[in-house]
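re: ur question from yesterday

yeah so i grabbed the chain u mentioned. its 368 aa long if i counted rite. heres the sequnce exactly as i have it in my notes:
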Amino acid sequence: MKTPIVTKNLPSVGEWYQQLGKEKLSQQLRQEDETRDQRLALLHQEIGFPFLEPDIFPAAEMMEKSPRFVKFLRQNGDRLCAMRLIPQDKSLPKLRNRGLSVQECYDTWFKKLKIDPSQYTVYIPPHSDKTSWSAIFVVSSDGIFGEIIRGLHAQLTRGLTEHTPYQFLYDFKQWHWRPERIETVATQAQRMIESLLITDPLDREKLTQLVQAQFHHQYLAGYFEAMIWPGNKLYFIDYNRIIAQHISLPPLASSDSKNDKPAIQGVSVYPGVVEGRVVMAGAKNIKRVDFQPGDILVCQNTDVRYLPLMKKAGAIVTDQGGLLSHAAIVARELKKPCLVGTKKATTELENNKIIRVDTKQGIVVELD
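ran it thru and got these structure tokens back, copy pasting raw so excuse formatting
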């Protein structure tokens, strides 16, 4: 039996913003997320945009095992899937699971949900546990920036990185990489981005009318998530027009340290220089940790349980995480200097030590 990808404490971006008290923006993001398949389908229909088309069922039809769903289950039961339940009532939560076969997800998860099935629609796109490359990037007026990683996409959105993420910036003239450019990595990233280059003015006009699309240097603007599947097949799984407006161009900080002491290095999410006391927090002590305003939050990764500490923190430093993980987006919204992907902050730093977090250089330095 496959292991599902758990998202209990790792909500969608819209749900993060709801926790921040930004109800209007949260609702806008929720609506944008719930209609993403329709936008991707329109792009596919009009310009051949590659996306993973979901099978769609009313939840009540699945609960009742209608002939149509039974036929689908018979033909696709062994296929890995992602299952998303979208409520009609906006006060109800979205529910999601992925990484199981359709049959396993239906038997072990869906049928056990305590929901009113008349209130939900179920989206079931295919899923692969052998994804070659995954990427998140933003197309803005300042440039195209993001990151790409080997393996499953959840590493980037959830910040649970198992492989090295590669950050990139394309200013519409030159490419910039951190770490250094590797040809196989660059080829896949550029392939994804070239899919967004719409050179035909009639196509741009059509997309502007159909999905209120915007363009920069003829590239479709927005926040995008994409994957390379076995067989070198490219698929997009998200196109979000709203969240991109809330993500500014980050610095690709230099990894060269000018300090005498060896510095911990990471990826800068939000710029700033802060000195403060190290406070280690983890799942076991997060509710009882002594955390004062201005302390430096140091942890393996952040999820929604860390939000009260993130709000009080002078800066945030994590072992894992990426440039555009959901928690990183929230750190930007909080305007907190944040360094992610250090790999070793929790093992090399000590509680109560005074450190300097310099996200302009992408380093953490212990002070005497």
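noticed a couple things. The radius of gyration is 21 Å. also The mean pLDDT is 91.
anyway ttyl
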